Amino acid sequence: MIRTANFVASVSRNAGGLFESVRRLVQSLALAQMHVRVFGLLDEFSEQDLRAWLPVYVAAFRPTWPASFGYSPRLVSEVLSFQPDVVHNHGLWLYPSIAAYKCHNKTGKPYLISPHGMLDPWALGNSRWKKSIARVLYEDRHLQNARCLRALCEAEARAMRACGLRNEIAVIPNGIDLPAETPPGLPPWNGRAEPGVKILLYLGRIHPKKGLAFLLEGWASLRKTAGNDASRWVLCIAGWDQAGYEASLKRLATKLGLAWNDARAERFESGASILFLGPQFDFAKEACFAHCDAFVLPSLSEGVPMVVLEAWARSKATLMTPPCNLPDGFTAGAAMKIEANAESVAKGLRELMEMKDTERCAMGAKGRTLVAERFTWPHISNQMSGLYQWMLGSGAKPLCMADF
């Protein structure tokens, strides 16, 4: 039985999409009779979220100063006592990168890195000087000595090559669970949006790289020109605020002449076309996906976004940008392509709103079919298991290996 140690910077919802993708990956591998453990860091949500990892054992430690770097002196020793055959590090730029390399130095065992989009051009340009220092101090050494790199898509694999990395690269996307046919609860916009309106949902981090400024600008342009088609829709923005960016979006909406409400506050403006919902998890998140009429992700940079897979799994028509790195969605007719600029967003929104309900449903059905065929967790965990075996010299080179 292969023993794998998985490093994560956070074991809670603070990890964003990595919380869902890494958690479900290791759980799927455990179901496939692999001995899997997770090693990470504690934060304010860890106590609430640790049970979600079961039956996988999670060893999580309080980081010491500076907490933002994720340094914990126990991390390496705890991993070594587990005696893993393979170490798998999820993410870059924090102390787990150093810990993974230290484990390799002490044992000679191979390690795999899943950067999760953190080597993409936009990501490298964000806080560039800090990442340049990190590369010199430890990250280049960590990357160059990995037995293999795991890319979520071909675009991410090419970004790795553009960084000068010559390691073997496996292309294995994130996975998704097809939702159970259970009645969802009421959505968070219930009683906050006018009865009978259609809902366009954004769900994710409230962060500049998600393209939300372009979304608001396109929304404003559309409201001025599309008449009744646009007035029948409300844009619901759900997610956790990062560095106060939600407040700047609200100011932008006001500047653009867009009326907005906040579902967490008493503020209520009749006829508002934008509703800020705040973070949505578990049943509330499921209700958002179940009751929306379409989903949008105008992102500037992604690995493979879990939220798009979640929307497709629930048969939702989707608007997204090419940097979401799911080109099969465009080919299959499961998504409409928009660019990260106001003009393109407005054009895409207009086309979406002019579609018949049956056409949007047909688009959503194609998304669910695509997920069922390519992105379910049993399929993904089988690819990962084959990759681990090859890394240990006990299996053939997997078909998922990039040939460039």
Account of the protein in words:
The two termini are 32 Å apart. The strands form two sheets. This protein has a seven-stranded parallel sheet, sandwiched between helices. Helix 3 (75-82) crosses helix 4 and helix 8 (212-225) packs across helix 14. Strand 13, helix 13 (327-331) and strand 14 form a beta-alpha-beta unit. It has helices spanning 17-31, 46-49, 75-82, 95-107, 121-125, 128-144, 154-162, 212-225, 228-231, 245-255, 282-291, 306-313, 327-331, 342-354, 357-374, 377-391, and strands at residues 3-8, 35-41, 57-61, 86-90, 111-114, 148-151, 168-171, 198-203, 233-238, 260-262, 274-278, 294-297, 317-320, 335-337. The mean pLDDT is 93. The chain contains 16 helices and 14 strands. It has two domains: 3-175 and 376-391, Rossmann fold; 198-374, Rossmann fold (3-Layer(aba) Sandwich). The chain is an alpha/beta fold and 404 residues long.
Beta strand %: 15-25%
Largest sheet: 7 strands, parallel
| Helical amount | 40-55%
State the CATH class of the largest domain: Alpha Beta
CATH superfamily placement of the largest domain? Glycogen Phosphorylase B
- Number of helical elements: 16
Shape: globular
Report Rg.
22 Å
CATH architecture of the largest domain: 3-Layer(aba) Sandwich
What is the strand arrangement across the widest sheet? 3-2-1-4-5-6-7
Mean pLDDT: 93
Instruction: Report the strand count.
Output: 14
Task: Give the ordered list of helices and strands.
Answer: EHEHEHEHEHHEHEEHHEHEEHEHEHEHHH
Q: Would you identify the regions where 5 or more consecutive residues have pLDDT less than 50?
A: none
N- and C-termini, Cα separation: 32 Å
Secondary-structure-based class equals alpha/beta
CATH topology of the largest domain: Rossmann fold
